[in-house]
């Protein structure tokens, strides 16, 4: 094989590797964003649950005072 062909094959291999790494990075970033969204949703749901529980307890504390 001529040196030009060898160099062209190396360049193509390097480009393919770069594209593979970039695709892997994009996949990783998408997974990270998905995980961040999942965790944010969990936090929001827990916050809502705690606020609801706090309101329920406040109403229970007020109930005897009204009697």
Automatic annotation (TrEMBL):
Annotated spans, Disordered: 39-67
Name of the molecule in the record: Uncharacterized protein
């Amino acid at each position: 094989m001529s040196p030009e062909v060898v160099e062209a094959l190396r360049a193509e291999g390097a480009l393919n590797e770069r594209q593979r790494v970039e695709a892997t990075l994009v996949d990783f970033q998408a997974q990270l964003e998905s995980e961040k969204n999942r965790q944010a949703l969990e936090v929001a749901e827990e916050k809502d649950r705690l606020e609801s529980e706090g309101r329920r307890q406040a109403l229970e504390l007020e109930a005897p005072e009204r009697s």
